[in-house]
Structures are given as structure tokens and as C-alpha cells.
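Action item from last week, closing it out:
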Amino acid sequence: MLEILTRNYNYRNKSVRLYELGRVYFKRADGLADESKILSLGAYGEMDFYTLKGAVETILEELRITGVTYEAERENPSYHPGRCARVCRDGRQLGVLGQIHPAVAAAYGVEEALYAAELDFSALYAARNALPVYQPLPRFPAVTRDIAVVCKLEVTVAALEDCIRRGAKGLLKDVSLFDIYTGPGIAPDKKSVAFNLQLRADDRNLTAEEADADVGSILELLKAELDASLR
């Protein structure tokens, strides 16, 4: 994938996004090769870590793969140590995504930031959930709340999302990241992370008090476990 991206690098000042599904070959100790089928995504231009992560999440959603976590990866020499994550489910690694290490990009004569994801197709196939069953549309509307919490720089978005889901009291249906901010107004060793929360009851209309109570429970757990406070 990196070679394909660099072959397209002449199209400067444009956004290039490519994918490829094919086999890679890794030498084993017995002299033979592991022939893994890898789904690779690559991009440069109008791309950053979270946009790439969103593309990976879309693939996982379409394949009905749930319960995925993103764990910081700092040992892979091909990737930037601070902008790389392993894609995992139930302790098994499904792939890796992030920014190609600047030194690796430079070795190919590329000055612009390159982003890539490598997903093990066999692992993805094995991780699929059962075929979807028809679910009627919700009878009652959702209540949305936006929260922005200030936490230490090293706290990952995945850790915050996990804490949010566990802190809810049964009304949270979805949580999505929409902003990460550092700069004026935020301490140098901290960041502000903002999420949109969708809350809904299956049997009634939610009151503002019920939604606020669920959000309050979430904020309490964020503070207790990650020292993340409402901005």
C-alpha cells in the first residue's frame, strides 16, 4: 500500500485515498510463508488519524463487528509512535492503523503525512456477528447531550468512550466523538475531548431530568476513573 501511495504522490495538493485487498507473505521459522489476506487503506492530503479511524469503523460496522477497542501502539516501526493504534476484539488483533512514520515516508521521498490501515481479512471474517434481524424503528425519540471533558493528554479516546458507556444507567444508545482541543484555555498537559450522547428509553419518552441523571452518572465515573472533568 505504501508503494502504491508513493506512486500517486505526484498529484500534490490533492487528497488521495486508496484501498487494496491482497495477500502478503511473512517468512516463518520453518522457512515457509504465512500468506495472510490483508485489506489495506491508504491516504494523504485531507486526512488525519480520526478520519482514518472513522473509515475503519465504517468497515467494521458494515461487517457487523462489535466490541472493538483501539489500543495505543508504539512499537511498530512503520508507524508514528504517537499516532498509531491496534484494532482489537476479544483480545485478538484485527489490524493496525495510523500515520506512517515520517522517517519511513521520507525514505520513499514523501514529505506529506501518510496514513494507512492494515486489517487482517480472515480475522475480520471470523469476528462477524450473526446475520442482522429486522428491528422496528424506535417508537420514542432520542434525547441528545453534548459533553466536553478535560483530561490528561495521555488519556485515550477509547478509554473515555469505555468509561462513558459503563457510566450510563441503561439509557445511552450511542456515543460519538466530535472534537479534541488543545490550546488557549486548556492546561499544557491536558486536552478537551467532546462527545455527542444519544439517550433513549424503549418504552417511554425521556424527561430532561432522566437524561441529566444519566449524564451525571457518566461524569461521575469519568472523574473517578480518569480524572476527567466537565469543561
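Closing note: The CA atoms of residues 44 and 210 lie 44 Å apart.
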